[in-house]
Write a structure and sequence with these properties.
Strand content: under 5%
Helix content: 55-70%
Structural class: mainly alpha
Largest sheet: 3 strands, antiparallel
Order of helices and strands: EHHEEHHH
Radius of gyration: 26 Å
Number of helices: 5
Shape: elongated
Distance between the termini: 78 Å
């Protein structure tokens, strides 16, 4: 397993357990929580959590009243993983492709999608770094030309003052 640590921290739970709402069922023996609790535990806004769900990155069950219910352990870990992958520069489409390879602990499990997506991201970054290096060199040359012209102008002004 490849370990990736992007420095993304997930807030620890404030409460050791969240009781499921009356009438809700706990899947796989895990507790369920509402979107607000998931937001508090992960430090991610409810709006962003809804966006993750819309993009297919996060799954919620719905209560009879339409409220979202998330598996306590799985959802907190999944949001943390999504945040980690976003911090690495992956977009939500790429995250959707590699997320199945990102289960069971930190890092990505080698799978058909993870290598290609990560290697493509590295290649893209290398291109961006090369472009930024070229821009830095061009700006540095521009600054040198400006300083030379300023020195020439100051020398001309000094000569003009001496001859006056």
């Amino acid at each position: 397993m490849l370990h990736l640590d992007a420095g993304v921290k997930v807030k620890p739970a404030r409460h050791p357990a969240v009781r499921p709402a009356p009438g809700s069922s706990a899947r796989r023996g895990g507790e369920r929580m509402r979107i607000g609790e998931l937001a508090r535990r992960t430090g991610v806004s409810t709006r962003v959590l809804r966006y993750y769900e819309q993009r297919g990155l996060l799954r919620a069950q719905r209560d009879a009243n339409g409220y979202r219910r998330y598996d306590e352990k799985e959802s907190v870990e999944r949001v943390g993983r999504i945040r980690e992958l976003l911090a690495l520069g992956l977009n939500t489409d790429d995250i959707g492709a590699v997320l199945p390879c990102a289960q069971g602990g930190p890092g990505l499990m080698p799978c058909a999608f993870s290598y290609g997506v990560v290697e493509r991201q590295v290649s893209q970054l290398e291109g961006e770094i090369a472009e930024l290096s070229e821009r830095r060199a061009a700006l540095t040359a521009y600054v040198q030309v400006m300083r030379a012209r300023q020195a020439e102008d100051e020398a001309l002004a000094a000569r003009a003052l001496r001859s006056a």
